[in-house]
Write a structure and sequence with these properties.
- The chain is an alpha+beta fold and about 150 residues long.
- It has a single domain (about 25-140), classed as Porin (Beta Barrel).
- The chain is built from 2 helices and 8 strands.
- The chain has an 8-stranded antiparallel barrel.
- A hairpin with a 2-residue loop joins strand 7 and strand 8 (about 130-140).
- The longest helix is centred in the first third of the chain and has 17 residues, at about 1-20.
- The protein is globular.
- The relative contact order is 0.17.
């Protein structure tokens, strides 16, 4: 009797461990920010250039966040992002994070919140764990057909 129970337990363990449907779930695709573009104003909050402003556009396409300004000035490619949706508020609040690396070994971390058509957050550039620059940004959803 003990060997039967032990055998069934071992068999159940193997079945549930290696069964294809028992594996980790795939990351759900973003259906909230996908294909949205925001026009933002970034303000540097560190170094000698505190208060220096830059106009930018950040987009959420192909499950990646891309910043035109960061791509052209710091050579950061589009990077994967994750979202969390708080549907208990009206309008919904979406928080997102994204981390990327450029060819110079610099890291960028985006953190932000989208409420309705407004966005705000921070972008932090670092190298070897040391913060080089930090930006605060605010903006709005880009209207299709609007001039850049």
């Amino acid at each position: 009797m003990k060997t039967t129970i032990l055998s069934l337990t071992a068999l159940a363990f193997v079945f549930f461990t290696f069964h294809p449907n028992a594996s980790a779930q795939k990351k759900a695709k973003d259906k909230v920010l996908v294909n949205k573009v925001f026009v933002i104003e970034m303000t540097e909050t560190t170094s000698k250039k505190v208060g220096k402003k830059e106009n930018d556009e950040i987009s959420f396409k192909s499950e990646k966040l891309n910043s035109k300004w960061m791509t052209s000035n710091n050579h950061f490619p589009a990077a994967p992002y994750t979202v969390e949706v708080d549907s208990s508020s009206t309008p919904w609040t979406v928080t997102f994070t994204s981390e990327g690396k450029n060819t110079d070994g610099e890291d960028i971390k985006w953190e932000g919140t989208v409420t309705g058509e407004e966005i705000d957050g921070t972008a932090t550039l670092s190298k070897k764990g040391k913060t080089k620059k930090e930006y605060a940004y605010t903006g709005t959803l880009k209207v299709k057909g609007a001039k850049k």
